[in-house]
Design a protein that fits this description.
Elements: E1 20-22, E2 25-27, H1 52-60, E3 72-78, H2 84-96, E4 119-125, E5 128-136, H3 150-158, E6 190-198, H4 207-222, E7 227-232, H5 239-243, H6 252-265, E8 272-274, H7 286-315
Parallel strand pairs: 3-5, 3-6, 6-7, 7-8
Antiparallel strand pairs: 1-2, 4-5
Helix pairs in contact: 1-7, 3-4
Amino acid sequence: MLYYTDFVFKENRSEKKEDKKMGGWQSTTSDQPVQPDLEYSKPWRKTPWGEEKQLDKSLREFKLTVPNSKHVRILVIGEVGAGKSSFINSVNSVFQKRITNEALVNKISDSTTFTKLYKTYYIRYGQSTLPFVLTDTMGLESQDLHGIHPDDVVKAMEGCIKERYKFNPASPVSPQDESYRSNPSLQDQTYCLVFVMPADKISLMNENVIKKMKYIKNKANELEIPQVVIMTRADEVCPLVKENIRKIYTSKKIKEKLEECSECMGIPVSHVFPVKSYHEEIDTQADIDVLILRALTHIVQVANDALTLKSKENTE
């Protein structure tokens, strides 16, 4: 069996709005002049701008392919300060139609993790609970006795950690602990692992943190759990995007950072989604919602596929 301690890190022309529809989705660029050093003349990824209501409705009405399952579990991990809790809050804000802060976020500059407990967030729309849950974790840190222990992430993926388990950086959960679940159900297990990586700090990430993330990724592969990268703080690395979020998929800088994420983690570019989480806004905004909903749609779909596969294996 592979343990974390055994793992070794190897490792100009103006353009009018386009309204090309593919299955009801639009690809729209600004009618401002293209800046050749900063952006491409056309979007490099189609985005359903203006379709936030349809995306929202699709997720609210999403049906899992395993009838007796109430939800699929999505595990969110990342380095301290990457924006895990902010992303979870942003997802909740989209469906609540207001800014929420259910997952507490540390606003003080601190290099230590704020989240200490294993906690599941049920996403609600009105009185209904949606068929997916997001689980927050303690942040990863560069030092081995700080932040979440990588083997705790593995146990969480396996469904062996009970709700509100308090993470211990020095020692991962064991079968002797009260918070250890010996016989996890399908509902307890993880079906998509989400790495949260801040766009403005990717180049500065500590090698030991990357080492831990790659160890976790390898264990997820062994468990046949799909992985997605949410690239937060996209507006902080590109002035075009900061001014107009619809430039996110014409920005050369965002594409460069997305490819850097992909190469760093060994995750396909198609599984990396740049977003802007809510942090200074007091109301939700349609374009921010579109990016979050599009990423979440992909996450929920691959998680449902993994749940279907696991369910079939259990019945064979």
